[in-house]
Amino acid sequence: MRVANVSGRLALIDDQGAAVDVERASGGRFSSSPQAVYDEWTRFRAWAESAELPPGEPFDARDLGAPAPAPRQVLAAGLNYRDHASESGFDAPEGLPPVFTKFASSITGPVTEVRLPEGGHTDWEVELVAVIGVEARDVSADEAWGHVAGLAVGQDISERITQLQGPAPQFGLGKSFPGFAPIGPWLVTPDGLADPDDLELSCAINGEQVQKSRTGNLIFSVPQLVARLSAVLSLLPGDVLFTGTPAGVGLGRDPQRWLADGDELVSRIEGIGELRQTFVG
Ligand code: ZN
Fold it and tell me: How far does the centroid of ligand 1 lie from the alpha carbon of residue 242, in Å?
């Protein structure tokens, strides 16, 4: 099942790739809010699986918003692939990865234009994003998929000067400039993927591939992240979890490389879809 935000309204994407408006198709039983649906995710899934849906309407990818546009919490894991920890000059984490937030105002839909912070070093990080569907508190890894509504493609765009300045890193600010958290193109429920624990992810700048790995290489898988994070705090319906990026970011290159005016960044995950960001100076 693919759940989308089309022009700010909750929609299901049908087999033809067209959008079925949920509020209208459900006779008002579910609201048009793409964020509110997570508060009644279990009832929504049951309805969506059995409902007789009307024909969908075509839409443009630019009309898509984030599938979770206003989460109460955004959690992001750092150093969650061994090759990226290594290129960043850190040991691979044990127990817990470093966890930070991307402030919610940085979230956008999948196809956007992003303004480069002046004088910054703006970098790319393709990541699998999980959205919570059922509150998780002290859940085991075995139970964790049952708390995940679905998966999307994310970009953890990062301005490295802000991120790394001062006596301790500023992850939250360096990764929260406007447009720095595109998510999409929609949410795919775990049962809609052949193996939600092992998906190819990649990104390319102007057609040149710069990152490519598989989520099977995550040090802490989605279920392990949900288990370990929920041992500390409650993960709430609609919360967004960035799971970390593999090697190939600009910071880890020699020479280092940053996004520039006119660059187009395309980020893909197998079975989910793609994001497309154009950068302007
Ligand atoms: Zn990241």
Answer: 7
